[in-house]
Write a structure and sequence with these properties.
By secondary structure, the chain is mainly alpha-helical. It has one domain (2-221). Helix content is 85%, strand content 0%. It is built from 10 helices and no strands. It has helices at residues 2-19, 21-40, 45-50, 52-73, 80-85, 91-121, 128-153, 159-170, 172-186, 190-221. It is globular, with a radius of gyration of 18 Å.
């Protein structure tokens, strides 16, 4: 399973490196979301600074939907989805590989947006020992939830519409925990932030386990 996961992740990341979809679409989209928030709250810098954790994760959340849709669109043309199912790759390995590839892209995007909120929102990001794990686990959780439902909707003609309807409600606990942990890190309150990070880890681990165990069934149903 782990070998198959590495193969799938390497394949997806090579494709993204060659096509530069993440660089040309995901990054500009996420930065544009931050800019729109900055324009909307420009007259209230204090409000904007206080809302930085939530706005940061909303931008990442919206970008993650595009990343997941892209990850499963790679196998959509010419019956490639059926070819992947018949390839003999472990379903759990397929899932973990997709999650790893999406999570790497999201973490790189988080690093970019962290610079963006400092420059645009005048945010102060302290407690890096809490902030970095929060971003890593948050990216993993977003990727795990997105790929779980992406496997179910990937074969549907209206996957782009169905996926957000399924994913957004499921991500509410992750968004809450990630925002609170990020806020605690930004305000140098690591004691409170570690508790939210523990909840974030539990949520991400739960979806990673669920997706690994059920991805084969989801592919068949999708």
């Amino acid at each position: 399973m782990w070998r198959d996961a590495a193969l799938v992740a390497a394949k997806d990341l090579r494709i993204e490196a060659r096509t530069r979809v993440a660089l040309n679409q995901l990054a500009p989209f996420a930065v544009l979301v931050l800019l729109l928030f900055a324009f909307a709250f420009d007259a209230e810098r204090t409000v904007l600074r206080g809302a930085t954790p939530g706005l940061f994760w909303v931008a990442i959340l919206l970008a993650s939907l595009l990343a997941v849709q892209r990850a499963f669109a790679l196998e959509r043309p010419d019956g490639l989805r059926d070819a992947v199912r018949l390839s003999g790759l472990h379903p759990g390995g397929l899932f973990l590989g997709k999650v790893a590839a999406v999570a790497v892209q999201l973490f790189a995007l988080e690093a970019l947006l962290a610079v963006g909120v400092v420059a645009l929102y005048d945010a102060s990001l302290s407690a890096p020992l809490l902030l970095v794990p929060t971003c890593i686990v948050g990216a993993l959780g977003l990727a795990a939830v997105g790929c779980t439902y992406g496997g179910l909707t990937g074969g549907q003609r209206v996957a782009e519409t169905i996926l957000p309807l399924l994913v957004l409600p499921a991500l509410a606990p992750l968004l809450l925990a990630a925002t609170q942990a990020f806020e605690a890190a930004a305000e140098d309150r690591p004691g409170e932030g570690w508790r939210w990070l523990a909840l974030l880890v539990a949520f991400a681990a739960g979806y990673v386990g669920l997706g690994t165990a059920t991805f084969g069934i989801l592919l068949d149903d999708g």
